[in-house]
Design goal:
alpha+beta; about 40% helix; 3 domains; about 625 residues; six-stranded mixed β-sheet; Aldehyde Ferredoxin Oxidoreductase,  A, domain 1; homodimer
Chain lengths: ~625, ~625
């Protein structure tokens, strides 16, 4: 056993489930790679780069879904107990990662495993039950077609253990909606359609129960530092007050007053109905309780109950800011109760609320501008602000019924089918829609959106630095270097799988020493912040290489026409725009810093060798020479 | 007229009021010094260093009180419209500065003046009425003895102008309570006893009405940048959400959960009654409205009304965090209503609520530990938590009645009179009590407290960096350099007179470019952040030299015995302490960075020459050689 095998925190075992063959095998985690890739998104990117052949269909048995708990999961280390899920996305066609809080990851660790990898496809619906070290595939026919809530209830009965932690798909995943989620408890693993990949494999759920122990390298040091981190969090305005009290919806007023709050499919960046959607209104009208994830002092999650007509009786863990944006302002809706009901419907159908909301907004703009008529939409008058449309339309998408079948493909593919220039209204990059943070009003973040492997994600880069005045907003100077640093902070924390909402503690721009400090105390590594930067860059390049292998090039690092040509028409950020020239200039500088080929956006073999990725350097060398031969 | 005379923002005129002679004269602001000292605390420090002979009694006619509006006052520049007041403090014997928001400073600027300097002493009570360019001394006998609220009401009638802005003293100032305040509207200029200095001069009030215009160097640029700053503020968690919603009392829970919330005269650093004092409780129970100062988007001020017995009917602009600490936890009191009533009483009597609360806590500990008995306290049983004592005791102090006369001297002098080792319970440095931020639990801030010219002030250094995790809390490494940087941020912003609550925007550690940017656009200067650092250091040294001339030496840069010998006994920061050895080590490094003589703490002539202070270099050289001759 090599020295590297001795790192603590990891259980060093994963389960490999082959659904085609119906087998479940435990195997060693590739331990030689722990220090090199840390875990989570880093380790998964490397494993899927190696295990997935280029060009496979994400919804075929060739694709794989990897669940991973991070090195801190199950320990007291604050926010370190998230579960990550990894696959090739049916929405973006790239390596995809998503993580969620809650209580799933610790349970998996206590059962004795760092992860589970799902391969092949089953003929009939199954679920995997992991009861400590024991694991078996079981029949899930009874709940095929069931919503996520009912599925979780049934599973607890079938297992006979109320304490099991569950990750399930709903009807949207079964119908291969390209933005179907996995639901774990009340938390979602979302955006890129991981639920659809599981649906294509007829894999309904993963149920885990564990009662084992976890090894930690330096118990006393971990306890001490964890307490210190919790104290730092409690003293910080963001993690100590804003998020505990308001949750993520605090961004409604913050972004609206800055003029970077997307509304009506980004035709506006302020919303006249923001007050009705604000955290303050929400807390007054529907929030009944604050909820926290495992080992997290922030308790940002809100549990809400609607008590007035027409949505009386709807309950939801949320709403979260992004869903208020997507299902609220983007659709011209200003009722927090309507948003709560729509979010609950998405959760229960197992479908991403951001993609759903933005797809509906896309349809509404197309309808209002004449690209769609009632004949195309099963008779629905798709106009902004029509609250009564939301629940029926969400149901149609999840069931791929009529017009819903078109939107279930995501806005990029839907626009291709609609034609008539409707692609101008598809507010997406690389197939994924933009989250509720402005591109035009946050120039550095715009570069992050354009170059981000997940396109419209707000977790490849972050809007926070520019929004909070940590870096100057209305300039592009220094932004490429800033974006690189934030990329690295994001991917390193995603490899440890610690929560981005604590970015003020971990960063918020560069990887702070406390991040590697807690990693070291739990695992026994002796990573420095310098090594962490390098590791983050390595992982970032693996993910880029994965995409390049699938055909991604410089031209795909872009933004929709609206962001590049129409200045923000309203509010305090009126007039701001990222022109194509500006974007390309920032990309030049960004590629330069990254050591990527300027013409193609492909990582250069030199830089990859410097990052100790000789095999990927070889792959990129071949692709580069093909490109240059054209 | 030299080029320097052309700076905008300044009106370039001050009024010099000689109360002994009964004269009021307009004179030119020393314009050659504007770039060198900026304004506010910087300009005042230089003027008072030049105008006040060493060794004068702060409560004699030899002392002067200078009111100054800053270069941004009256413009749209956010938080730039505070009024500053400067004098030699009867509490600390050093140069003292305090500033307050509200609406006074713009009015003074619109009247055509940057400031007013009050000299000498009147035989009978007077007030100064400035009506645009016209200024006259008027009889104030009718309101001598009146509270601040009644005084302001009477003044408006006497002037016949409801819109006048007023700065007045109350009974505490008239009786020379060493921590009497000036009250301007509902805001206080506090801590160091400036109200007593005015009281000693029989100067009851300054009333100002102005309708003139202000020159701004670059109007468009000022407008644009001001809007940008407001947007940055709205996007920042601290200035955008925490302060607007909760105000400064958000620190109750934040500090209590970090274990740095002083209680029962710092015998504890957590308080079991914190929940009852928290911002959340306060908002629920007594806050009726948010209030903002001139040109400030933060609206941190809360207007509160008590609606339940026994304090029903008390209204207050507040309570502020510091007063909740001093009049609440420090006195063992957990009722926000009781604190609101006590704060209102202090405001109305024109007496500093921090000093008042901490003085009472000092008396309570002395009483409980046997240094005081009911015979000393006019029969009052001074025990922690006795809410019913507060209003009577506050009244006694303000009127210097019986036992109140002892506390009116401040805890340092009171302890000297009580003897019996009671000085161990006097939680002060340089005569001023510590604000509601831990020394033991925030090591860098402890150094700031020890070396701060105002002793216990939380505005010479700041607790924020360590509390929010911007710098690591539980270490002294790098803290001297950090403290120097924060000192400079504080004094530079105090010279522009912009609000420290926006420290996240201006700093929070180093002077950010936006600070000098707004200064430059308003005034036409072309200051860089490098020059700003140097200017801040120059001002810091003038203030130090003022204190040295009064006899301050290295030994005075210290902390009370409790902080140096008793580790925090409770809560999350349990065990933390700043030993004398640690403090002296940090001081060595701090003096080294500052270029101050290590043995005496006196600024070296070399460094003063480098800061372009040749005359002060000469003064310090003489004092140093006397010291070394001893």
């Amino acid at each position: 056993m090599s020295r590297a095998m001795l790192y603590k925190g990891y259980t060093r075992k994963i389960l490999r489930v082959n659904l085609t063959e119906g087998t479940v095998k435990a195997e060693e985690l590739p331990n030689g790679q722990l220090r090199k890739y840390i875990g989570g998104a880093g380790l998964a990117a490397r494993m899927l780069y190696d295990e997935l052949a280029p060009g496979i269909d994400p919804l075929s048995p060739d694709n794989k879904v990897l669940f991973l708990a991070g090195p801190l999961a199950g320990t007291i280390a604050p926010t370190g107990s998230r579960i990550g899920v990894y696959t090739k996305s049916p929405l973006t066609n790239g390596f995809f990662h998503s993580s969620a809080g809650g209580y799933f990851a610790p349970e998996l660790k206590y059962a004795g495993y760092d992860g589970v990898i799902i391969e092949g496809a089953s003929k009939s619906p199954v679920y995997l039950y992991v009861d400590n070290e024991r694991a078996e595939l079981r029949d899930a026919s009874r709940v095929w077609g069931e919503r996520t809530d009912a599925t979780q209830q049934w599973l607890k009965g079938d297992i006979g253990d109320e304490a099991a932690q569950l990750a399930v798909i709903g009807p949207a995943g079964e119908r291969l909606v390209r933005f179907a989620n996995i639901t774990a408890g009340c938390r979602s693993l979302g955006r890129g359609g991981i639920g659809a990949v599981l649906g294509s494999k007829k894999f309904k759920a993963l149920a885990v129960r564990g009662k084992g122990k976890l090894a930690v390298h330096d118990m006393e040091g971990t306890l001490k530092l964890s307490h210190e981190i919790m104290q730092i969090m409690q003293g910080n305005p963001s993690t100590g007050q804003v998020l505990p009290w308001f949750g993520t919806p605090v961004l409604v007023n913050a972004n609206n007053s800055l003029g970077v709050f997307g509304a009506r499919n980004w035709q506006q960046e302020t919303f006249e109905g923001a007050e009705g959607l604000s955290a303050e209104t929400m807390r007054q009208k529907i929030v009944v309780r604050d909820k926290a994830c495992f080992a997290c002092p922030i308790k940002c999650s809100k549990y809400s109950v609607v008590t007035n007509a027409p949505f009386e009786g709807y309950t939801v863990e949320g709403p979260e800011y992004e869903n208020i944006f997507a299902l609220g302002s983007m659709c011209g809706i200003s009722s927090i109760e309507a948003v709560a009901a729509a979010e609950r419907e998405c959760d229960d159908l197992g479908m991403d609320a951001i993609e759903t909301g933005v797809s509906i907004a896309f349809a509404m703009e197309n309808f209002e501008k004449g690209n769609l008529s009632a004949r195309d939409t099963d008779g629905l008058e798709l106009r902004f602000g029509k609250t009564e449309l939301m629940l029926p339309l969400i149901g149609k998408i999840a069931r791929r019924e009529g017009f819903g079948n078109l939107l279930a493909e995501g806005v990029k593919r839907a626009a291709e089918k609609i034609g008539k220039g409707s692609e101008a209204f598809a507010m997406q990059n690389k197939g994924m829609t933009f989250a509720g943070h402005s591109a035009r009003g946050l120039p550095g973040f715009a570069l992050g959106y354009a170059t981000g492997p997940r396109g419209g994600s707000h977790h490849d880069s972050r809007p926070t630095g520019e929004r909070c005045g940590i870096v100057q907003r209305d300039t592009i100077e220094g932004k490429p270097a800033y974006t690189v640093k934030v990329n690295h902070l994001m991917i390193f924390t995603d490899s440890m799988i610690i929560c981005h909402l604590a970015e003020a503690i971990w960063g918020p721009v560069e990887i702070k020493p406390v991040v590697v400090d807690i990693l070291n105390r739990v695992t026994g590594m002796d990573v420095t912040t310098g090594e962490a930067e390098l590791t983050a860059e390595r992982i970032w390049n693996v993910i880029r290489a994965f995409a390049v292998r699938e055909g991604l090039r410089r031209k795909d690092d872009t933004l929709p026409k609206r962001f590049l040509t129409e200045p923000i028409p309203d509010g305090p950020s009126k007039g701001m725009v990222i022109t194509e020239e500006t974007l390309e200039k920032m990309k030049d500088e960004y590629y330069e810093i990254r050591g990527w080929d300027r013409a193609t956006g492909i990582p250069t073999p030199q830089r990859l060798l410097a990052l100790d990725l000789p095999d990927i350097a070889e792959d990129m060398k071949q692709i580069l020479s093909q490109e240059q031969g054209r």
